[in-house]
Structures are given as C-alpha cells and as structure tokens.
Amino acid sequence: MPFTSNRHFKRNPLFISGGQGAYYSTPEGKQVFDGLSGLWCCGLGHGRTEIVNAVSRQMAQLDYSPAFNVGSPIAFELADRLKQIAPENLNHVFFTNSGSESADTSLKMARAYWRMKGQPGKTKLIGRSKGYHGVNLGGTSVGGIGGNRKLFGSCLDTDHLSHTLLRENAFSRGLPENGVELADELEELVALHDASNIAAVIVEPFSGSGGVIVPPQGYLKRLRELCTRHGVLLVFDEVITGFGRTGQAFAAQTFDTTPDIINLAKGLTNGTFPMGAVIAKSEIYAAFMEQELPEEAVEFPHGYTYSGHPVACSAALATLDLYETDQTYARVRQLAPYFEDAIHQLKGLPHITDIRNVGLAGALQFAPRGANPTIRPYEIFRKCFEAGVYVRCGGNTIQLAPPFISEKEELDNLFNILSDVIQATA
Ligand code: PXG
C-alpha cells in the first residue's frame, strides 16, 4: 500500500468499502465522515449520479481510443472547458493521469521550451522545502519532504526555496502576515546558479501534504515578479488547490497571481477516475508549434497511453458541470469563515503548536512525543476513524479538507470529535 506502514497495516487493517455524499462506510457498516475529501479529491462528495451516469454512457459509447495520432472529440471538448475557466492566457491543455505525471510533464515542458527558445542551458528546476509534487522522478526531485527523497539518491538537478512556515506566524488565520521576503531567496538562487541555467520554479500555491502551509501575504506575487524579471517559468502545482479548495476554480485566481503553467489532477474528476492535466500559456504552446520542423514531426515527444482517456474525460466534464450547478466555489467561500472559526477554536488543546487554514483546508500541528513527531497525529487519525470521522495524519500534522457539500452541523461534529480525541491523546 502507498505511503503506509505495511507491516503495521497487516496487523491493524482499516477498510472503506462504500461512499455516499460526505460519508464513507466500512465493511462492518460504520458511517465515517470524509474529513479530507478522499485524499483532497472528492469535494463534491461520493456517488454523484451525474458522474456515474456520464461515465457509464461513455463506457458504452467509446471505452478507449488511441491518443497517439488519433483524437477523440471528448478530449478536445474537455480541453476547451478547462481553457474557459483557466486564468487568461493559460489556454493549452495536455492530459495526464495523475498529479505526479502532471508534475513531470510540466517540468519536461519547461525544459523543452527553453531549448526551443535557443537557451538549452536552462535546465535547473527550483522547488521549495516541504513542497510535494508527487512521486515520479521529476516531482521527487523538486519535492521538499525529506522522507520522500532520502531513499532515492540525488535524482535531477534542482535547488529549493525555503518553506514559509515561520514561528511568528503560528495560529495565523488565513494568509500569514510575515514572510513575503522569503520569495526574495529566488534572487539568491539566481545569483548562485545564474538565470541562464534555470528553467522553472514550481510551487504549490498552498502546500497540502506538507501540512497546509499557507503563503504569506504578497509572497506569490513577489515570486511571480521575480520569475518574470529573471526569465524563469513559474509553475503552480494546483493538484490540491485546483477546483474549489480556495473558493475559486484555481488558487491562481484566489491569490490573483498568474503562473505560466498550472498542474491539475484530483478534483478534475472529483477523484472518480485517474486523470491530470497541465495547462500552459499560449507562448509556451507557440514555441512548440513554431519550431522549424517538417509538419509531420512530433513537436512534444511526450504523453501516455491514457492521455485524454475518453472515460476520464466524461467524468471530468460531468464534474465541471457539477461545480457550476452546485455553485461549489461560492459555497466554499461561504463555508470558509465558519471552518476558520471552528478550527481556531481548537487552540489551547494539548500539544497543538500551530493551526493553519485557507479556504476549506486546514491543519493542526502537534509537538513531538519524545523524539517522535508523527505518532500523535497517527494515533489521532486512528481514534477519529473509530469515532466516525476520517482525517489525515501527515508528518507532525492532522490535515482537514472537508467536502464542499459539508453542512455546518457536519463540520461541528467533525471538530467535536477531533477535540475529544485530542484531549484523550497523551
Ligand atoms: N502535486 C500535489 C500538490 C499533490 O498534492 C501530487 C502532485 C501527486 O498526485 P498523484 O495523483 O500522483 O498522487 C499531489 C498528491 C496528503 C496526500 O494526504 C496528498 C497527495 C496524495 C496523497 C496524499 O496530503 N497529493
């Protein structure tokens, strides 16, 4: 099992066998509130009939078609829909099957772009400490969670910005006040490596897996300015932040900062089907199309057997329809202040050293027990599951990302259970 203590799991298994709305059910028939929307992907809740019907119709009509050299209309339809909701000038879509593939696709795209612009030396990739961009080689290299890297050697040529978790920002509500100057570290990396060697900077608008690390006020805009000034591409990994988590379709819109490339997955299909996408600005697309190559040459030798899979596309189109008809993003904006008040009411409970939130996402950070930083969150996760709510333990944090369809009473219940469990945990 992925990212699981497999030996421990064998002795203490946990199973989910059903899902409906904001609830999972276990094989024993217990109902469990889904406090992380799956793994940040099922904001619309489980078992949405509109998606089920769209997928089953598409399975019957066209279950698969080869994406190399042959198009399927539904993939173009989905690309058009994404272009409509993406920030201005981000208007060309490449389909992948996961967030990890989106990360590696965007990094390869950035390197190829500079080569086509006559600057083949621009290959270095800059990530950020505590960042997460999936588990493929590119994403692992730019990723900033030490435990995910140490087994695998040095991977690609990268450097990292510092993370933005500052002690003086502890218990900030929403975007913290301090730390905009951390973006200026890019100046130092440019001084060290020279912009002629740097292809791209990749960051999550807020880091999800790292424990809901929210950008300091002004930080992303500063990073954007510096990337523009030095001719470095800016990639936003919106695998978690895309599709509503911050109250807009994309965090780029919430934070009013437009990157050159946006990576997506998860909420694209409401988690129902493995699919990701990379959206690039028109100048990047144009650089590929304007190469001096014979027309029959392949412009971007990259892609997957399942790129633009027709059934995944049908799931994504039905999902995008639901975000509109449910008025999901407005609902998130409406619920977010309630969520913020509720999560910050946990301040003062034993061992909590920080509480962070943005949109409908939040994290509680815990002091280590002895030398072990992860044991408390793990125990809390297990006890919450027993008590009927699923929350995620990651590192020294408990992470929350309730479904967008959550009712206030359900959030109350989530926080009541969490509070009881934290108090009962040594
Ligand atoms: N980028 C970001 C920002 C992610 O959060 C990926 C890429 C990789 O996506 P795939 O689809 O290849 O897993 C992710 C995935 C957690 C958690 O609990 C987060 C993810 C996956 C599993 C657990 O925080 N994010």
Coarse structural class:
alpha/beta
Relevant CATH superfamily of the largest domain: Type I PLP-dependent aspartate aminotransferase-like (Major domain)
Instruction: Tell me the count of domains.
Output: 2
The largest sheet is: 7 strands, mixed
Physical arrangement of strands within the biggest beta sheet = 4-10-9-8-7-5-6
Termini separation (Å)?
A: 28 Å
Question: How many strand elements?
Answer: 15
CATH class of the largest domain: Alpha Beta
- Our count of helices gives 15
- Please name the CATH architecture of the largest domain: 3-Layer(aba) Sandwich
Bound small molecules, by name, code or SMILES, are: 3-[O-phosphonopyridoxyl]--amino-benzoic acid
The CATH topology of the largest domain: Aspartate Aminotransferase, domain 2
From the alpha carbons, calculate the radius of gyration and give it in angstroms. Answer: 21 Å
Order of helices and strands: HEEEHHHEHEHHEHEHEHEEHHHEEHEEEH
